Amino acid sequence: MAAAFGLGLGLAWNAGLLGGGAVAEAAETAVVREEAARRAEHLAFTEAYLAHSAREFRVGSGETLAGLLTRAGASRAETNAALASLTDVYDPRRLRPGQPVSLYFSDAQLTGVAFRSEPGATVTANRTTAGEFAAREVEMPLTFEIARIAAQVETSLYSTALAKGATDREIGALADAFSYDVDFQRDVQPGDQFELVFERYYDDEGNTVRTGDLLFVSLETRQGPRNFYSFMAPGDTRPDWYDADGKSARRFLMKTPINGARLSSGFGMRRHPILGYSRMHRGTDFAAPTGTPILAAGEGTVVRAGPFSSFGNYVRIRHANGYETAYAHLSRFARGVRAGTRVRQGQIIGYVGTTGRSTGPHLHYEVLRRGQQINPINLRVANGRNLTGRSLELFEIERQRIDTLRQVRASETPAQQAALRVTRGDGGR
Ligand SMILES: [Zn+2]
């Protein structure tokens, strides 16, 4: 295992030197030159250490790196020299118990130390010809792929997507795309299907190191399947979500005016904490931890922001065409939110709490039309742009590209997919 770790390090760098397709990103000339020097140096070291013996140790509970080196048989002078160089690039106190550390010896003399500092990076300290140690943190070559996750919701959408290798970023983006017509606390149930297609970079151990653009999201609930494609229309500054016909996912008002990614039906209150779902209760309650951001469901003007009887801290926003939305039991208001403030759709207006008549942290959300509460489920007024002309033509090309990627991914054999195994590091860095 120790030898494999050391060898893997060398081979990975060789692959990089031969232009093995890793991290295909444009680099500045100076960086390229520096890289070449580093690789040459590292290659020399690789040659040298392959002749040496490599042994793997694991950090003991409460053990320091100095303690580990001593335990492995390094002299006090070697330990001090190695640590002195390492502390320039890494704080050894960040090593966790159980973490593997590879040590290299030649004739009982310590010649090298290597360990993974974080997913996608390794710290090495090598003995120089002068007898000192030189340490550096090296980025491991990353592999890029278009990842596709298609799965059935198990306990919650969030935990299932995480387990399948998505990060908070992708799950949050899916929740954003569907926030206009899905009630994430009641509409999404175990057994529902979802799909995510996104760019992923992973290291040689299969850890997701970071993710790139999210290309496609799909959710199939009892209401039926819905697919959205990411597309940046000419003149726009950021991509937006469109269905297969080029119609925007955006609607006049959101159905889930809160980050829905972490909401789960299991966690939610099916009944109002005080009143139950009586005929009088026309609002929607979202159980969520105190401090969860609450979003303006649509563009409008704040007409009220302050304590309001049993509603506790309360915000009411006036939108176009006689519509209003109300948000109750907030722990606090977002900065600058007061009567008269203009708000954008999706802007944070306050945070979940349990003020007023409430037994636990939740958002009470109401949609009103001409002063009467209405069920947000009846609100399907599209608001976003529908692509036309040249934009629609460009969208068609992008949609076909994404669908092709999905088909290619979906047609892979289970063995090929297993090769793309995902063990979660702290992804989405
Ligand atoms: Zn309520």
TrEMBL record:
Alphabetized Pfam families for the sequence: Csd3_N2 (PF19425), Peptidase_M23 (PF01551)
Record keywords, A-Z: Hydrolase, Metal-binding, Metalloprotease, Protease, Zinc
GO cellular component, one term: cell envelope
Gene Ontology biological process terms, A to Z: proteolysis
Main location: other
EC number: 3.4.24.75
Superkingdom, taxonomy of origin: Bacteria
Needed cofactors: Zn(2+)
Chain ranges of the M23ase beta-sheet core domain: 279-376
UniProt keyword Oxidoreductase present: no
Any one GO MF annotation of this record: metal ion binding
Enzyme type, top EC level: hydrolase
Domain Csd3-like second N-terminal: 147-267
Subcellular locations according to the entry: Cell envelope
InterPro entries: Cell_wall_metabolism_enzyme, Csd3_N2, Dup_hybrid_motif, M23ase_b-sheet_dom
Keyword check for Cell wall biogenesis/degradation: no
PANTHER family to which the protein is assigned, alphabetical: CELL DIVISION PROTEIN YTFB, PEPTIDASE-RELATED
Stated name of the protein: Glycyl-glycine endopeptidase ALE-1
